Amino acid sequence: MSPRPFGRIAIVNRGEPALRLVHAVRELNRTGARRLTTIALYTDPDARAYFVREADEAVPLGSPTSVDPETGRLGGGYLDHGRLERALVRSRADAAWVGWGFVAEQPEFVELCDRLGVVSIGPDAAAMRRLGDKIGSKRLAEELGVPLAPWSGGPVESLEEALAHAGRIGYPLLVKASAGGGGRGVRRVDGPGELGAALLAARAEARQAFGDATLFLERMLPRARHVEVQVAADGEGGVWALGSGTARCSGATRR
Fold first, then answer.
1. Per-residue pLDDT of the chain (255 residues; tens, 9 = 90+)
2. Helix intervals (H) in the chain
3. Residue 247, helix vs strand vs coil
4. What secondary structure, in 3-state letters, does 156-177 show?
5. Per the omega criterion (within 30 degrees of 0), is the bond before 64 cis?
6. Which residues in the chain are classed under CATH 3.40.50.20?
7. Among 3.40.50.970, 3.30.1490.20, 3.90.226.10, 3.40.50.300, what is the CATH number of 134-219?
8. pTM of the model
9. How far apart are CA 93 and CA 96, in angstroms?
10. Where are the CATH 3.30.1490.20 domain residues in the chain?
11. Least CB-packed of 32, 64, 177, 245 within 10 Å?
């Protein structure tokens, strides 16, 4: 099925990701193509942020924090699906762009967009459930015979479990959030005495940034290089590799 046309894009992110979308749309509009409108969704502290001022329109989300009604846990305003739904309706958006972080790897948000008739610019919910978290991606890579650095083989719930895996994996290792990206929820551990504090810190940061505190362990490769290739697909069978970037990093995973 061909993607539905759209003209009003709600930006469900902030800062650099939001600005990249605003500037990309501005460049596209200059080509004379059908004009697209950018709508920044923002929490109270971001009311005068650059990305809000640069967007064509803006819709407030309210407080920067939210409380999960089921668990009582504190989360970010950009993760509150109820608020996001109300903002999408209020903005009259017919598309949503999430960038990276926040709800970018939450298939539930894609399903929310589907229910509202809003085009989610990105993978569908089924693809995100298959590849949207690092643990799922690693398991798929293992199924396909892709070599991986030693890892915990799944989520780690307790310090005792983590210590057992760490003994097998070896040090130095990384505690990593399964959700999100951008280096959030990642801690280096050089010995067993550091593991408990690393788990607590990574879990808290992952919960705040992504709404998901799931962690795993993997061997750190100190002299590795991270190679990433961005791929874009148009939903009609066209797929493009957009080039690659290489940089030294403190703990890349072979994927």
1. 456 789 999 999 999 999 999 999 999 999 987 799 999 999 999 999 999 999 999 999 999 987 766 666 667 889 899 999 999 999 999 999 999 888 988 899 999 999 999 999 988 998 888 887 899 899 999 999 999 999 999 999 999 999 999 999 999 999 999 987 778 899 999 999 999 999 999 999 998 888 789 999 999 998 888 777 888 887 788 999 887 554 433 333 333
2. 15-30, 50-54, 81-91, 107-116, 125-131, 134-143, 159-169, 195-210
3. strand
4. CCCHHHHHHHHHHHCCCEEEEE
5. no
6. 8-130
7. 3.30.1490.20
8. 0.69
9. 7
10. 134-219
11. 32
Domain at 8-130, CATH class: alpha beta
What's the token pair of residue 187?
């801690």
Q: Which pair of tokens denotes residue 164? A: 């057992």
Half-sphere exposure of 191 (CA within 13 A, CB side): 1
Encode burial over 104-143: b for 16+ CB neighbours within 10 A, e otherwise.
bbbbebbebbeebebbbbbbebeebbeebbbbebbeeeee
- Cβ-contact 64, 44 below 8 angstroms: yes
Rounded distance between C-alpha atoms, residue 67 and residue 106, angstroms? 18
Q: Which one-letter amino acid corresponds to residue 121? A: I
